[in-house]
Design goal:
The protein has a 7-stranded mixed beta sheet. It has 310 residues and is of the alpha+beta class. The relative contact order is 0.11. The protein contains 14 helices and 7 strands. Helix content is 51%, strand content 17%. The longest helix has 18 residues.
Length: 310
């Protein structure tokens, strides 16, 4: 893996990639994704817990990976690849949190800096509960609790990732653990009800399952954007999206709700049983679909969602 990273740096000399991936991703970027594939499950889990959304976490991780690809020449020590990627992903998460007013409002009740007594981490088996609850903590405490109590990073590693000192990390851990211990039982959030979006998604699924691609296109705006993980980012009209769905194993699409958000689930036929394999996220504006995100290459999203549901 170290040699692969060195090869990237050597072949990339004098080449400036685009600021954002556009169209079909080039072979070098896809090779880079393969090189860092062993880190993606943990990176996604971290981003998902920081943002409180498995799908937002994937979007942020993809942005972080492309940023890392653009800056690979700045990585001097290939042994530092993991903390370097985590630091980029962490900074992206912080930017996301800061721009989400609803998140900041939800955190307002826990944003104080009161002094608390040290609290020991929860016992074995409590990791999943911690992961789901950290979204109620301010960003720094959230990151420190995740990195220490879930990902088992050292205080020194965490300090480097969050831009603090070992002492600062200890303080954030103490505050975060105490707040988690004091949290009341969290009610299950009711899914947001948007009749217009539900109607649009129902029609989209109907047409998609009928392989009526002209009908599907009629539901989208002229400048609708498509993002297909590890493959494509650009205009839907310029993509081979529908052609790809004509290939491969039998599939069907259906509407569902995850984490309070209306999404589409793609099932594939395994023997005689239909099983969910990935999600598609639809955004609409003015009665027309303007963004589609297809997470076909991200099995870790489904794994995380199913684990949380248990």
């Amino acid at each position: 893996m170290n040699q692969q990273i060195r090869n990237f740096r050597e072949t990339r000399q004098g080449i400036e990639p685009r600021p954002d991936p556009e169209g079909l991703f080039d072979l070098r970027y896809r090779a880079f994704l393969e090189t860092v594939s062993h880190l993606r499950v943990r990176l996604h889990r971290y981003c998902a817990r920081m943002t409180g959304s498995a799908l937002d976490g994937e979007d942020i991780m993809q942005e972080a990976l492309f940023e890392a690809y653009r800056k690979i020449g700045q990585l001097d020590d290939t042994q530092a690849l993991r903390p370097w990627l985590f630091r980029i992903a962490h900074n992206r998460c912080i930017d996301f949190i800061r721009t989400r007013r609803t998140r900041l409002k939800a955190e307002a009740g826990y944003a104080g800096d009161e002094i608390v007594l040290p609290v020991e981490p929860a016992g074995a088996g409590a990791g999943r509960a911690i992961e789901r609850l950290v979204v109620h903590l301010p960003p720094k405490e959230r990151a420190c609790v995740l990195l220490k109590d879930v990902f088992d990073h050292s205080l020194e590693e965490i300090a480097g990732l969050v831009g603090s000192t070992s002492g600062g990390v200890k303080s954030a851990l103490n505050r975060g653990r105490a707040k988690l211990a004091a949290l009341p039982a969290q009610p299950v959030a009711a899914p947001a009800h948007d009749p217009e979006l539900e109607r649009l998604l129902g029609r989209y699924v109907q047409l998609f399952n009928a392989r009526d691609w002209d009908g599907v296109r009629a539901l989208t705006s002229a400048d609708a954007r498509l993002r297909v993980s590890d493959c494509y980012n650009g205009l839907l009209s310029d993509s081979p999206y529908f052609v790809e769905y004509e290939r491969g194993e039998p599939w069907r699409m259906r509407p569902d709700t995850i984490e309070g958000e209306a999404v589409l689930v793609v099932d594939r036929l395994r023997g005689e049983v239909w099983r969910p394999v990935y999600f598609v996220r639809i955004h609409a504006e003015g009665g027309a679909i303007d963004r589609i995100a297809d997470y076909y290459a991200c099995p870790w999203i489904l794994e995380l969602v199913l684990a949380d549901a248990e």
